[in-house]
Design a protein that fits this description.
This protein is an all-alpha fold. The protein is built from 8 helices and no strands. 16% of the residues are buried.
C-alpha cells in the first residue's frame, strides 16, 4: 500500500519532468504524439484523484465532495451530473464503489493510449537538445540509451522503495488517517502535492464556474502551444 501511494507521487514527478522536457525540446510540434500525451495527462489525473478517495479518510471524503461539486457549476446539467457521479445526493458508499471501479479500469485505457503514444513517437522520432533534426552522428539505441534508461529506472525504483520503507508518510496528509466523517469538516481541505496547482487556481478565482474553466484551461492550453511556434528551430 505504501509503495502504491508513494508510487503515485513518483509517477507524477516523472510525468511533469516529461512534459517540461517536451516543452523545452519543442516536442509539441509532433502533434499526434503531443496530443495523445495530453489526453493521457487528463486521464492519469482523473485516475489519481479517484485513487486518492479510496482510503476513505477525512481528506479523501472532503476532497471528493469539493471536487465533484465543481461540476455543479456547469449550466443546466451540472447538478444532474454530480448526483450521477455520487450515485445519490451526497458522497457515500455508491460513490466509493464507482470510483474504485473506474480506478481499476482506467489504467487499461491509459496503457492502450500509451501504446498509441509510443507508436506516434516511433513514426516521428524524439527531438534533441539542439532542436535540429539530422541523420548524422546517430548512435544505436542499445547499449547507449538502454543503460541510460536502466540508470533512470533504478534511481526512481530506489527512491520509491526508500520512501515506502523509511518515510512512507512524508508525502501524505495526517488528516487522512482519520476515518471519513460527513459531520466534521477539516479546517484545511487540500489535495496531494501534484494537484496543488489546481488547488491554487480554484482558490484564486472566487467565481465557481470561472474557477472550473480556468482549471481545465490550465491543462488544455497545452493543446494550443504548437500553434504558437513560429520559428524554424524546435527549441
Amino acid at each position: 500500500r505504501n509503495i502504491h501511494a508513494n508510487g503515485a507521487s513518483m509517477f507524477f514527478i516523472c510525468l511533469y519532468l516529461h512534459i517540461g522536457r517536451g516543452l523545452y525540446y519543442g516536442s509539441y510540434l509532433y502533434k499526434e504524439t503531443w496530443n495523445t500525451g495530453i489526453i493521457l495527462l487528463f486521464i492519469t489525473m482523473a485516475t489519481a484523484f479517484m485513487g486518492y478517495v479510496l482510503p476513505w479518510g477525512q481528506m479523501s471524503f472532503w476532497g471528493a465532495t469539493v471536487i465533484t461539486n465543481l461540476l455543479s457549476a456547469i449550466p443546466y446539467v451540472g447538478t444532474t451530473m454530480v448526483q450521477w457521479i455520487w450515485g445519490g445526493f451526497s458522497v457515500d458508499n455508491a460513490t466509493l464503489t464507482r470510483f474504485f471501479t473506474f480506478h481499476f479500469l482506467l489504467p487499461f485505457l491509459i496503457f492502450a493510449l500509451m501504446v498509441l503514444h509510443l507508436m506516434f513517437l516511433h513514426e516521428t522520432g524524439s527531438n534533441n537538445p539542439t532542436g535540429l533534426a539530422s541523420n548524422n552522428d546517430k548512435v544505436p539505441f542499445h547499449p547507449y540509451f538502454t543503460y541510460k534508461d536502466l540508470l533512470g529506472a533504478s534511481v526512481m525504483i530506489t527512491a520509491t522503495l526508500s520512501l515506502a520503507l523509511f518515510s512512507p508518510l512524508l508525502l501524505g496528509d495526517p488528516e487522512n488517517f482519520t476515518q471519513a466523517n460527513p459531520l466534521v469538516t477539516p479546517p484545511h481541505i487540500k489535495p496531494e502535492w501534484y494537484f496543488l496547482f489546481a488547488y491554487a487556481i480554484l482558490r484564486s478565482i472566487p467565481n465557481k464556474l470561472g474557477g472550473v474553466l480556468a482549471l481545465v484551461m490550465s491543462i488544455a492550453i497545452l493543446f494550443i502551444i504548437p500553434l504558437t511556434h513560429n520559428t524554424p528551430q524546435r527549441t
